[in-house]
Design a protein that fits this description.
CATH topology of the largest domain: Rossmann fold
Strand content: 25-35%
Radius of gyration: 22 Å
CATH architecture of the largest domain: 3-Layer(aba) Sandwich
Number of domains: 2
Number of helices: 11
CATH superfamily of the largest domain: ANL, N-terminal domain
Helix content: 25-40%
Structural class: alpha/beta
Largest sheet: 14 strands, mixed
Number of strands: 24
Shape: globular
């Protein structure tokens, strides 16, 4: 049994007869005492590592049983193949996260119980999550964002969770009828879809967006139509929450990620990338340690600045585009593109130019309203950016699919563009 199980039992006793979990797919409501009783039932699983998957009550119960048995938990996305374990884990490791692999091959991140407890506490204190504003589960529970914002607040702090059967607008509307006031954590693509369908419920008291930067245009549009402030949240699998925009009005600068979470220290390293120190930073990568994650510090690959106590993101060091010796962040170009009312989604990247000495060419993949003429969009961008930052190649598509984590893969679309041009 782990400190996590001890904490869960305290929560379950204190809130025994209050609603803990609602499964919209089957219409079932679980009180804390119901979850506790079900979790205490014997389950024959002798594996040292348990792999909860899916998005319903079984996911939660699998975690509780693993905590009770002292097993390591490694959440998986539906269909994800469990990683192989050829080495023994350190004795104090209780949790493993799989990274999103945006900068290389996927690897595991190892956490102790105290680190998970610290992450949940930092998020709760900073965001002001409340038992009378239950979380609506519309994002992946297995991903670091969903696990830290939905699962841990439920099990360690008694914040009820409404598990929706999908992230479609109608599902959000239906889930919102369960309580008078709710908290909704989403990703920008979902907020865009809900806003476009006029499906954001009036009883949303706290709106959170993470996974990828929230555009100013979307934030301002939702605020103008509903008076609802979407709070931008920045975090990482390696350390949990990093920064959060707790202000009550839309940000004037989309590069602003907000202030560091409580009990989290953020600084800029010599390479211009952000470094994060807190009690929630993981023990390390596993099975092979890495210099970017050790001794309570996570050294990100995100270029950033700290101004007046706020964290500003300037893109990833690995994604910067070199144009004739001048570097530009693709995010800055994407922000301008997304500010056009006709653009639904976009991704910008660099590809080798014909003249290698001139550096890279900028490519923009665009999903837009069919009525938007490409030439008009180019002129729109040219009016806001220096000519050398305007994309040279434009690829208009019906859809730019985001992953379950809310991200449009820059590397994947760069690969597709190069393959398309070679064929």
């Amino acid at each position: 049994m782990t400190p996590l199980c001890d904490r869960w039992r305290e929560v379950a006793r204190a809130q025994a007869h209050q609603i803990a979990l609602i499964e919209m797919s089957v219409g079932r409501r679980w009180r804390f005492c119901d979850l506790a009783a079900e979790a205490e039932r014997d389950e024959q699983n002798e594996s040292s590592v348990i792999f909860p998957a899916g998005g319903q009550a079984d996911f939660i119960l699998t975690i509780l049983r693993a905590w009770r048995a002292g097993r390591v938990v490694c959440p998986l996305e539906p269909g994800q193949v469990p990683p192989a374990f050829a080495w023994d884990l350190p004795e104090d490791v209780v949790h493993l996260k799989t990274t999103s692999a945006t900068t290389g091959a996927p690897r595991l991140v190892a956490f102790t119980a105290s680190q998970l407890l610290a992450d949940a506490q930092n998020i709760l204190e900073t965001m002001g999550l409340r038992p009378d504003w239950p979380n609506v589960g519309l994002i992946s529970l297995a991903h670091s964002y969903g696990f830290s914002n939905l699962v841990l607040p439920l099990l360690l702090h008694g914040i009820p969770l409404i598990l929706s059967d999908s992230a479609l607008p109608e599902s959000l509307r239906r889930a919102a009828t369960s309580f008078p006031d709710i908290t909704v954590a989403g990703v920008p693509a979902l907020w865009q879809a809900w806003h476009g369908a006029l499906a954001i419920p009036a009883n949303v008291r706290l709106a959170i967006s993470a996974g990828t930067p929230l555009s100013s245009a979307l934030e301002q549009s939702v605020f103008a139509h509903q008076g609802l402030k979407i709070h931008n949240f920045y975090g990482s699998s390696e350390c949990g929450g990093i920064a959060y925009d707790a202000t009550t009005v839309p940000r004037p600068d989309p590069a602003c990620a907000g202030a560091p979470l409580r009990h989290v220290e953020v600084r800029v390293g010599e390479n211009g990338c952000l470094a994060v120190r807190s009690e929630a930073v993981a023990k390390g990568y596993w099975p092979q340690p890495g210099p970017g994650l050790s001794e309570g510090v996570f050294r990100t690959s995100d270029l950033g600045e700290i101004k007046s106590g706020l964290v500003y993101l300037n893109g990833r060091a690995s994604d910067q585009i070199n144009v004739a010796g001048r570097k530009v962040s693709p995010e800055s170009i994407e922000d301008v593109l997304r500010s056009h009312a006709g653009v639904r989604e976009c991704v910008v990247f660099g590809v080798p130019g014909v003249d290698q000495q001139r550096g890279e060419l900028i490519v923009a993949c665009i999903s837009a309203d069919p009525a938007l003429k490409p030439e008009n969009l180019k002129q729109y961008v040219l009016a806001q950016l220096p000519a050398w930052q305007v994309p040279r190649d434009w690829w208009f598509l019906e859809d730019l699919a985001a992953s379950a984590r809310g991200k449009v893969s820059r590397a994947e679309w760069r690969k597709r563009f190069l393959e398309r041009n070679r064929s």
